[in-house]
Every structure is written in structure tokens, then in C-alpha cells.
């Protein structure tokens, strides 16, 4: 069952006297529980697509539907609530609040949503345990490594039990060891929890953790490939990138 769909999605930006076509007629369907990687060169429209999928921006043409709701048909208040409750975001630079500890950062979306701490304390503790930070729950971001901060960000993205998690280069600011741990964690979340994930990445090895890779060029999906069981697919992805001149 599709949890997220785009239908003929285009996005144009006016830059001075020039009209830039960031996306041009993108049709994409994401199945529930699927892990999809999006790849393409700089300027191909990857981040624009992710912003539209997350309701952070509206398409110039076409529509994005999440869990049966067309995002562009929602009011500003409705789209804010939808983002808060149905979409988890993971960013390259973590975006943690520096004055809050790990536990408080994870709980922040629920606090903003008006929920009471006594109602979500167990959920926050369970998620911190799941990402391997049960013993670090009282630490603030400057007391944690980059990999640990990204684990906090992942727990925060999951705390609302979202329909989909959108990850924008989640390992781009990490060394190879920490990055590999984050990718393995995302794969585990997909396998164990059935979490739907869409991840923008430039790394073939990172993309090999996904079930499917979508290739963007000049604002269009030009190809995609289904994957098998991990690292051996990285060479196939690299070969496809070369073949597509990406």
C-alpha cells in the first residue's frame, strides 16, 4: 500500500530574470515500510523533492499525497499539524537544541504538540534505548559525539510514530564508522518497526542499505533500481550512476 505519492510534481523558482525548473513532472510512489534512497548530482532536485514530500514547500504543479491526504489541499494550520504528527525529519547537522539534554530533545515534538510528560516518558526512554543511548539520556549535545547526536535526532524523528521519516544526507557530517552505524540503524528501523524511510544521499554504500534507489537528473526521475541484500549492491549503484552520467 502506498503511503506517499507524487503526481506530476513540478517546482519552479524565480532567480532574478531566470526561471529555474527544480522539478519537472515527478511521479513517485512510496510503499508503506519501504526504504527508498534518492540520488543525483547537485542541482538535480533531491532536496527540493524532500521538502515537497515533507510539506515544507508546495509544488508549482502536481500534488503530493501523504496517507491519503493531498498536502496542498490543507490549510497552513493543518499542514503544520500533519508535519508534526505524521512526518519525522532527520537532517545532516542534527538540529538539536543545545540547551536540552538527549531525553528533552527527543521529547520536544511531543511537548510542542501539547502532550504531557507523564504520557510519553516511557516512549522516550524506549526510543533512547533502541538507538543505544539509554545511558546518555541526560547528556547535552556538546557532551556527545556526532554519531550520538544523530542517534538522538533519529529517536526524535520517531517519537511521534510518524507515517514516514525523511532523511537529508543523514551521514554527511559523520566519519565512515559513525555513518555506517547510522545507516545500519535506519535499516533496522525499517526491518523491525516497518518504518517507511526516504533518504537523500550521494553515497552508493549508504544507498545500498535501501530497498530501492531513485535517480534524479535535471528535476526528473530518469531511472530506479531494486536492491538485494546490502553492500554488494553498492558497486551496482556506482555502475548505474556512471552509466547515467550522474
Written overview of the protein:
The chain is α/β, with parallel strands linked by helices. It has a single domain (2-243), classed as P-loop containing nucleotide triphosphate hydrolases (Rossmann fold). It contains 8 helices and 10 strands. It has helices spanning 46-53, 76-86, 102-112, 117-130, 146-158, 176-193, 204-207, 232-243, and strands at 2-15, 18-31, 35-39, 61-66, 69-70, 87-90, 164-168, 197-200, 212-217, 220-226. A 6-stranded mixed β-sheet has the order 6-7-8-3-9-10, sandwiched between helices. Strands 2-1-4-5 form a 4-stranded antiparallel β-sheet. Strand 9 (212-217) and strand 10 (220-226) form a beta hairpin. Helix 3 runs parallel beside helix 5, helix 4 crosses helix 5 and helix 5 (146-158) runs parallel beside helix 6. The longest helix has 18 residues, at 176-193.
Task: Offer a few descriptive terms.
single chain, 246 residues, alpha/beta, Rossmann fold, six-stranded mixed beta sheet, four-stranded antiparallel beta sheet, 37% helix, 27% strand, globular
Helix count, per DSSP? 8
CATH fold-level name: Rossmann fold
The level 1 CATH classification is: Alpha Beta
Taken together, the total number of domains comes to 1
- The CATH architecture classification is 3-Layer(aba) Sandwich
- Beta content comes to 25-35%
N→C terminal distance: 31 Å
The whole-number mean of residue pLDDT values reads 92
- Rg, rounded, reads 18 Å
User: Residue share in helices?
Assistant: 25-40%
Low-confidence stretches: none
Strand line-up of the largest beta sheet: 6-7-8-3-9-10
Structural class: alpha/beta
SSE topology string: EEEHEEHEHHHEHEHEEH
Query: Which superfamily, in CATH terms, is the homologous superfamily?
Result: P-loop containing nucleotide triphosphate hydrolases
- Let me know the number of strands: 10
The biggest sheet, with number of strands, parallel, antiparallel or mixed sense and barrel status, is: 6 strands, mixed
Shape: globular
Amino acid at each position: 500500500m502506498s503511503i506517499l505519492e507524487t503526481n506530476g510534481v513540478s517546482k519552479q523558482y524565480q532567480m532574478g530574470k531566470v526561471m529555474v525548473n527544480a522539478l519537472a513532472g515527478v511521479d513517485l510512489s512510496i510503499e508503506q515500510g519501504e526504504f527508498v534512497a534518492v540520488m543525483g548530482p547537485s542541482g538535480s532536485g533531491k532536496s527540493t523533492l524532500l521538502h515537497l514530500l515533507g510539506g515544507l514547500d508546495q509544488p508549482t504543479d502536481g500534488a503530493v499525497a501523504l496517507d491519503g491526504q493531498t498536502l496542498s489541499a490543507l490549510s497552513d494550520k493543518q499542514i503544520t499539524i500533519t508535519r508534526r504528527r505524521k512526518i519525522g525529519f532527520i537532517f545532516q547537522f542534527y538540529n538539536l537544541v543545545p540547551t536540552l539534554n538527549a531525553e528533552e530533545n527527543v521529547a520536544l515534538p511531543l511537548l510542542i504538540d501539547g502532550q504531557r510528560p507523564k504520557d510519553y516518558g516511557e516512549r522516550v526512554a524506549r526510543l533512547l534505548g533502541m538507538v543505544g543511548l539509554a545511558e546518555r539520556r541526560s547528556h547535552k549535545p556538546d557532551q556527545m559525539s556526532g554519531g550520538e547526536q544523530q542517534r538522538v535526532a533519529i529517536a526524535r524523528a520517531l517519537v511521534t510514530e510518524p507515517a514516514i521519516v525523511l532523511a537529508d544526507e543523514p551521514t554527511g557530517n559523520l566519519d565512515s564508522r559513525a555513518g555506517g552505524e547510522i545507516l545500519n540503524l535506519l535499516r533496522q528501523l525499517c526491518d523491525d518497526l516497518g518504518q517507511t524511510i526516504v533518504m537523500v544521499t550521494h553515497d552508493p554504500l549508504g544507498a545500498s542499505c535501501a530497498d530501492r534507489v531513485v535517480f534524479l537528473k535535471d528535476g526528473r526521475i530518469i531511472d530506479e533500481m531494486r536492491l538485494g541484500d546490502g553492500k554488494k549492491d553498492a558497486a551496482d549503484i556506482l555502475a548505474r550512476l556512471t552509466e547515467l552520467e550522474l
